Amino acid sequence: MSFPPHPRRVFDFLFVLPPGAEDWRMVSGEWDFPVGRFSLGVAPGETWVGLQPRYNTADLAGFIDGLRKRGRPDVAIRSAGKSREGREVPVVVVSEGAGAKQPVLITARMHPYESAGSFAVEGMIKWLLGDDACEFRRGHEFHIAAMVNVDGVHNGLSRLTDLRGANVNRVHAVSDRTHDAIRALVEEVRPRLVIDLHNFLEKARDDARSTDGEFLRRLARRLPDQSRFGKRWRQITWDVAKISDEDINWCHFVAREYGGVGVMFELPWFRRSGGDMRGLGAGILQAVLRTHAE
């Protein structure tokens, strides 16, 4: 596979998880289009190497199993439905106490290769279950679909559910069971706030995109500073009224149908570890919730 030359999409880095290591580390190399060259010191044992850190269906199953074992009354695990290949589309529900709640939907891995979303979701859930988030658990009901496109992740795809499948990040897509599941989840929850997590391959910026320009301007003041990773936040406001039917995503849909706020984040891996991405997820969720509460 070859890629067109692009100053911000130079594949001169990859990620390595050595035997016994707890986190991924980035390794720099040389880019001579269309070939990247890297020199690695590999210890005996199993070493994982990838364009991005791995987070597959087994990793998610382990994380969810850990949540179940904690037995917390404010955490429930459910399924949004099954994929074409019969995999459950898992949803973690976090809420505390009775009474009226604001529904919040958090989604990741609409596009299978974008593993940053899974790490960020882990960080979000860890923060949500801590003491600092008590007021938000009591006032909200969080529905967290940490890996929407389970078949695509399992089969190592880029954007679709299978080779001729659906782009589940679009409201209007080809017929597909995973797409049916996410649509049913959105229509059931009717969220007032949607947070959708992605990661493109840019190096020098993170994106925050929203259906509400004023909300986005206020949010930008709270987003975690990422300058130590050589990145800056770019803000993009969607004009939902001008978006064609074929390009409508679930953030747009919630704004149109329910009057809610949709926020999408692009969080590239360059210079980050898994721990960094989990921390960024926690920081983003705090920023979004506090801005939404104003």
Structural notes for this entry:
With 294 residues, this protein is of the alpha/beta class. The chain folds into two domains: 13-50, no CATH class; 57-292, Zn peptidases (Aminopeptidase). The chain has helices at residues 57-70, 116-128, 134-139, 150-154, 177-189, 213-220, 250-258, 274-292; strands spanning 13-17, 25-28, 30-32, 35-37, 48-50, 75-82, 88-94, 102-108, 140-145, 193-198, 205-210, 232-237, 261-266. The chain has an eight-stranded mixed β-sheet with strand order 6-7-9-8-10-13-11-12. Strands 2-1-5 form a three-stranded antiparallel β-sheet, with no helix packed on it. It has a two-stranded antiparallel ribbon with strand order 3-4. Helix 6 links the parallel strand 11 (205-210) and strand 12. The mean pLDDT is 94.
CATH domain topology of the largest domain: Aminopeptidase
The major β-sheet equals:
8 strands, mixed
Q: Helices and strands, in N-to-C order?
A: EEEEEHEEEHHEHHEEHEHEH
Q: Structural class of the secondary elements?
A: alpha/beta
**CATH 2nd-level architecture of the largest domain:** 3-Layer(aba) Sandwich
Task: Provide a quick synopsis of the model.
This protein is an alpha/beta fold. The chain has 2 domains: 13-50, no CATH class; 57-292, Zn peptidases (Aminopeptidase, 3-Layer(aba) Sandwich). It has helices spanning 57-70, 116-128, 134-139, 150-154, 177-189, 213-220, 250-258, 274-292; strands at residues 13-17, 25-28, 30-32, 35-37, 48-50, 75-82, 88-94, 102-108, 140-145, 193-198, 205-210, 232-237, 261-266.
